[in-house]
């Protein structure tokens, strides 16, 4: 995920036109789509919540780029070098390359190839913290490069038809048991020309094939995690896609959900619910990226056994007033928010408040995901203050398997996208309904 965010922030024009084939351009994001540090829905603010004063979006990246006017690359090697520069600061003392004294340079940890130190003393002093996460950060370093294949179409790889009823697929192991042997699909990606180009230009040794296979799977899991979480929510709210078409809104959608999004991204729902009556997925958020899914939502149900995707750039409560209330879009049967981050600061709470109250007062079945237990705890507290009827919360069995580094504080324990969920609907009717929250606050 961070390769997306850093490129979005630091690059508005990914390549010059004189690059030789077969170079594929990375999708460029115009300045109007880049996250703003003052945006109430900003990814940078959302990631800020993962730890106190630790934005997931690199301070270094923001401080260098400011408001990007466009950066071009002459070749892949330069692109990967620029991306790596967003991670270059001393993990021990936070020194930036330009602040080092003459003769000093930042050198990578030879074990994880992820963090940098300006002196041996910094590395030695930092080792008691770093050794706890060094092995995991090695995976992070591999993943943030392999994830580039998402831009080129190598990922996600095709999945099999479901051979089990949806009710019996309760975790990743259940899903994997329906995929036969993944080796052929993984090996095809490892042998692809794009994988060869990647490691030819990445300025670091190519990992062993077992490590690359695991990396490809982790990135695939993050892509599928959102889809399978939607399917889990459909079941938990006892919605029946075989009885009627379903409309699902993904709110607070941003670069993570929409950059490079394709019309087929949620087709796994058709494998989960074969013969369904039609499923519509609408991405709504102020940082939605333009692309194939940027089209009007359906006014009535879509084609049977197919998933229809669309997107709308804007705040959700405004989308509701301007589009849903005017019957230019169907009302949602289900709403999901992936990492809304409204607990992070007062600005985010205020920005989300109209949407949260709308969901409550219209009794909309809603499920949010969060990164970790602290975020779960504080989000639950806020929802209870708003008198939300919290029905359930806990660990998500379809959490992403790809570790996410808290970029400006690498020695913080990595987190995982959609690691936990909160399910709620309507107004809290009695104090007894708050037992779910009380139990969660004991985390």
TrEMBL record:
Asked if Zinc-finger is a keyword of the record, the answer is yes
Family matches, as PROSITE patterns: ZF_MYND_1, ZF_MYND_2
> Which residues belong to any copy of the MYND-type domain?
90-134
Q: Which InterPro entries match?
A: Mito_gene_expr_regulator, Mss51-like_C, Znf_MYND
Query: What GO MF terms are annotated?
Result: zinc ion binding
Q: Does the keyword Hydrolase apply?
A: no
Which keywords does this Swiss-Prot/TrEMBL entry list?
Answer: Metal-binding, Zinc, Zinc-finger
PANTHER family recorded: MYND-TYPE DOMAIN-CONTAINING PROTEIN, PTHR46920
What is the designated name of this protein?
MYND-type domain-containing protein
Q: Which organism is it from?
A: Periophthalmus magnuspinnatus
């Amino acid at each position: 995920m961070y390769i997306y965010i850093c490129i979005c922030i630091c690059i508005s024009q990914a390549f010059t036109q004189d690059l030789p084939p077969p170079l594929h351009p990375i999708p460029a994001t115009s300045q109007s789509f880049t996250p703003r540090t003052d945006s109430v829905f900003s990814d940078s603010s959302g990631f800020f919540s993962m730890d106190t004063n630790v934005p997931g979006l690199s301070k270094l990246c923001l401080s260098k780029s400011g408001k990007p006017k466009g950066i071009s690359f002459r070749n892949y090697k330069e692109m990967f070098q620029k991306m790596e520069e967003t991670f270059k600061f001393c993990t021990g003392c936070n020194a930036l390359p330009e602040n080092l004294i003459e003769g000093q340079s930042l050198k990578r940890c030879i074990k994880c190839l992820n963090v940098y130190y300006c002196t041996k003393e910094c590395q030695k002093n930092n080792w008691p913290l770093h050794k706890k996460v060094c092995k995991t950060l090695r995976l992070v370093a591999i993943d943030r490069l392999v994830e580039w294949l998402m831009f080129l179409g190598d990922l996600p790889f095709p999945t099999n038809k479901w051979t089990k009823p949806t009710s019996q697929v309760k975790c990743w192991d259940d899903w994997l048991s329906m995929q036969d042997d993944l080796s052929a699909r993984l090996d095809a990606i490892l042998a692809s020309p794009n994988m060869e180009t990647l490691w030819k230009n990445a300025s670091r040794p190519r990992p062993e094939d077992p490590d690359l296979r695991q990396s490809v799977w982790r990135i695939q899991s993050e892509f599928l995690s959102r889809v399978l979480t939607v399917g889990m929510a459909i079941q938990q709210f006892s919605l029946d896609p075989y009885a009627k078409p379903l409309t699902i809104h993904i709110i607070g959608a941003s670069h993570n959900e929409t950059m490079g999004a394709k019309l087929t991204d949620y087709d796994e729902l058709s494998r989960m619910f074969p013969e369904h009556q039609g499923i519509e997925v609408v991405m709504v958020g102020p940082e939605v990226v333009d692309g194939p899914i940027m089209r009007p939502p359906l006014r009535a149900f879509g084609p049977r056994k197919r998933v229809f995707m669309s997107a709308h750039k804007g705040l959700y409560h405004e989308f509701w007033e301007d589009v849903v209330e005017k019957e230019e879009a169907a009302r949602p049967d289900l709403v999901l928010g992936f990492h809304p981050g409204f607990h992070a600061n007062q600005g985010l709470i205020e920005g989300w408040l109209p949407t949260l109250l709308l969901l409550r007062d219209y009794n909309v079945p809603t499920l949010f995901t969060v990164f970790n237990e602290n975020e779960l705890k504080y989000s639950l507290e806020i929802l209870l203050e708003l008198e939300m009827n919290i029905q359930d919360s806990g660990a998500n069995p379809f959490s992403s398997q790809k570790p996410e580094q808290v970029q400006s504080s690498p020695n913080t324990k990595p987190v995982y996208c959609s690691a936990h969920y909160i399910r709620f609907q309507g107004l809290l009717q009695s104090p007894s309904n708050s037992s779910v929250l009380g139990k969660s606050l004991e985390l």
